[in-house]
Write a sequence for this structure.
């Protein structure tokens, strides 16, 4: 349609709404409607966003714009480096409304509470009606989750997952019962690698997406415009179109799903991908539909290509965890964002932004995060998350870091995982107990400790592993609260093994770590990193 004529609908598409089958397109009329997208710096600067994440969003948006234009639709697209760009979502929207004079704005419900509020306010200020349509990408709508939550004091993923699996008939037998007789095969999924590492399990490198001309242009733009932001783009290889995303999924189903279950918690030096799928960003930007992902995993099981434990373990992450965290987010926002049940006040250590620290597990996990915008679940939960929890970092600061650095970070999924599951900031809404552990857990699940100057078994002294020191200090600091939690009983009981002198030494060593900005003082003769 010609831009001079007033439009019927301005269809707003945000960077995490790149689904051509979304409800906003149901009644799209190419003669009267306009698709609207805007790249604004504000969205990359309200948290100090990493370069890989910015590049994934911008490249996927530009590919979406081109695909819509190929359909013969009018797309109003403001590029980041357009001289007229005001770099603010609200004012770009106001500009578009003034130009196109639409009768209404149509959008899919936003993934982030802040953005939803911002757009509602901008529409009101512009005096134009906003029609918010449900997000059909998910198995469970916000209303379905509210119905699930109604009358329950505690919301646990496992019960929610069973309900969704039954409703959508996923991995059920002919009687409608869970395939294999159990809902959950997690106990088969806690393996670590043998001495030879993942290569002994015939690990095959994932098929990476080669940047095309659109992506290369975006990479150059991000390097230029966000030069001081964290992260690197040298090895950028993320799917940015539905076709790329499908290819990434197929490669995973064929080559890594068979080992996914057993090794989903394992970690290994210089091996960022292991047996993981790398599809979270593609799903969160809506390039890939979770129904297709779940169906592909179920089909691989039914065809005898993967064990039930692997297929179930993978499907649970998507049908269970992914849907459940979204439900928790919308059920508890905006109050959720401010929760801090452990009254944690420390700053996030500086090395989270550089990876420069002596603790090998953190160096590895943060290093690959900055290089790729990626770390797998256990690295996020039991390395970077665990350290921040034990140190006592303010959960909102931890949240800002996770939202900034991961390519798949969108607040509805990032916040409950960070503030709730990993930091226990919500006091038990997401997790029934804090995920607190010593360095021995990391030693069991990885080979990181073999390349580290610290000893995971020691809690005091020059060789003490900071995780282990801070673990005991965490229990001591929160003993009265943790003692009330039955699931922490054993851990709290172990405090009785510490003498008064042990307690004093642990507290002093933990205080020293905090005094050094969250890292142990360098060993004598070593220069600070
Ligand atoms: P795989 O390990 O192959 O898992 C398959 C899929 O399951 C993922 O792609 C993802 O869509 C889903 N999934 C797995 N675990 C979770 C979970 N706990 N919550 C929601 N979905 C899950 N995931 C995000 O998508 N965005 C985030 O911003 C995010 N922040 C996190 C922050 C913390 C502190 C923690 C502990 C976890 C976070 N996760 C987040 C969950 C999880 O770490 C990532 O989804 C996963 O590592 C992505 O890699 P993958 O695609 O290779 O996943
Ligand atoms: Fe991490 Fe401690 Fe192991 Fe070093 S010894 S890698 S700090 S867990």
């Amino acid at each position: 349609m010609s831009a001079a004529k007033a439009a019927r609908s301005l269809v707003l598409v945000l960077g995490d709404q790149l689904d051509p089958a979304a409800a906003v397109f149901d009644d799209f009329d190419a003669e009267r409607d306009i698709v609207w997208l805007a790249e604004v710096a504000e969205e990359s600067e309200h948290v100090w966003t990493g370069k890989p994440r910015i590049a994934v969003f911008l490249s996927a948006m530009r590919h979406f714009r081109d695909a819509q234009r190929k359909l013969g639709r009018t797309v109003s697209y403001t590029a980041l480096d357009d001289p007229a760009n005001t770099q603010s979502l609200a004012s770009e929207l106001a500009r578009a409304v003034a130009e196109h004079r639409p009768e209404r704005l149509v959008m899919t419900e936003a993934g982030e509470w802040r953005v939803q509020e911002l757009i509602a306010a901008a529409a009101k200020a512009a005096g134009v009606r906003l029609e918010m349509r449900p997000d059909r990408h998910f198995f469970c709508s916000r209303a379905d989750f509210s119905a699930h939550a109604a009358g329950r004091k505690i919301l646990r993923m496992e019960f929610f997952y069973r309900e969704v699996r039954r409703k959508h008939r996923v991995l059920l037998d002919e009687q409608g019962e869970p395939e294999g007789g159990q809902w959950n095969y997690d106990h088969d999924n806690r393996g670590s690698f043998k001495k030879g590492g993942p290569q002994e399990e015939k690990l095959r490198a994932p098929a990476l997406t080669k940047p095309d001309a659109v992506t290369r242009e975006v990479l150059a733009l991000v390097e230029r415009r966000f030069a001081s932001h964290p992260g690197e783009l040298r090895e950028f290889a993320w799917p940015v179109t539905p076709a790329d995303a499908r290819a990434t999924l197929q490669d995973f189903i064929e080559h890594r799903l068979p080992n996914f279950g057993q090794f989903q918690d394992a970690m290994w030096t210089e091996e960022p991908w292991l047996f993981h799928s790398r599809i979270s960003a593609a799903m969160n930007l809506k390039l890939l539909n979770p129904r297709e992902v779940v169906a592909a995993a179920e089909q691989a099981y039914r065809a005898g290509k993967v064990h039930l434990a692997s297929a179930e373990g993978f499907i649970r992450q998507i049908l269970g965890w992914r849907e459940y965290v979204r439900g928790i987010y919308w059920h508890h926002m905006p109050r959720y964002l401010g929760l801090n049940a452990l009254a944690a006040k420390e700053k996030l250590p500086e090395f989270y932004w550089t990876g420069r620290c002596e603790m090998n597990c953190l160096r590895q996990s943060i290093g690959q995060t900055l290089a790729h915008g990626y770390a797998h679940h256990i690295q996020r939960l039991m390395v970077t998350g665990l350290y921040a929890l034990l140190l006592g970092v303010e959960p909102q600061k931890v949240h800002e870091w996770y939202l900034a650095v991961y390519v798949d970070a969108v607040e509805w999924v990032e916040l409950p995982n960070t503030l709730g599951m990993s930091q226990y900031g919500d006091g038990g809404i997401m997790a029934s107990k804090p995920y607190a552990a010593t360095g021995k857990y990391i030693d069991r699940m990885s080979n990181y400790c073999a390349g580290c100057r610290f000893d995971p078994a020691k809690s005091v002294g020059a060789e003490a592993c900071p995780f282990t020191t801070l673990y005991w200090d965490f229990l001591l600091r929160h003993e009265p609260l943790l003692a009330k939690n039955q699931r922490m009983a054993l851990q709290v009981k172990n405090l009785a093994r510490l003498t008064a002198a042990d307690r004093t030494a642990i507290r002093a060593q933990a205080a020293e770590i905090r005094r050094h900005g969250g890292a142990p003082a360098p060993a004598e003769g070593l220069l600070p990193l």
